[in-house]
Amino acid sequence: MKEGYADNRFASLYYKELGQGVPLVMLHGNGESHQIFGRLSELMSRHYRVILMDSRGHGASKLRDTVRAQELTTSSMADDVVQVMDVLHVPKAVILGFSDGANVALEAASRYPDKVLAVVAVSGNALPRGMNAFFYVQVRAKYALWHVMEKIPLTGPMKERAVAGRQLNGLMAHWPRLTKTQLSRIQAPVLILTGRHDLIRPRHSLWMGEQIMDAKVVFVKGADHFTLLKKEKAYASHIVAWLREKGL
Description:
Blueprint: E1 2-7, E2 11-18, E3 23-27, H1 38-44, E4 49-53, E5 62-63, H2 74-87, E6 93-98, H3 100-111, E7 116-122, H4 133-151, H5 156-174, H6 180-184, E8 190-194, H7 202-211, E9 215-219, H8 232-245
Parallel strand pairs: 3-4, 3-6, 6-7, 7-8, 8-9
Antiparallel strand pairs: 1-2, 2-4, 2-5
Helix pairs in contact: 1-8, 2-3, 4-5
């Protein structure tokens, strides 16, 4: 295992590597860290060179003081993914993302088509309204609440909590912003895994698949938003089989 940091003017980005073979970058969801992939990364590392990383403002990756209160965006996080790849001398990689990580993976494939071999997007969305209406309203309300709380004279942990709450909910409320045109720029094959009980609307997942040239949308039986983290072995087998079909 190898771990380290890739630094840019916005953040210090933590990464960890395990396994050998075709590079596979794994991206966690909102408010999480690479640690959610404990079992899944072990399974995938039997076949691939797994690169785990914490998104900016998450886990062991820290924002610079000069940008600590700035909004988080999927586009800037996609830039971070490519930077970590460059630091590790990885010209191209498969990107597997969960939830917000799936959004970042799709963003990276759209913005950097020459850097992405394939995308596995689990429970991701291309637009904020791709989430079901109830969850979307909750996210918007939490963003507004933390935005107000942040303006109250707070110090220490409470101030940091208000900033983080506004940033994390803002990331879901306002991002990603992948239009039809941007999705159509994705050249890599894409596997979209979702479920009828997901937080992402089924029609939105199908719409995403229609915009991408080589996309496969799979509704996993009985799956909700977090099934990937409960049935790692089943998902790993399905993902590896699809990647093998694509020659990866």
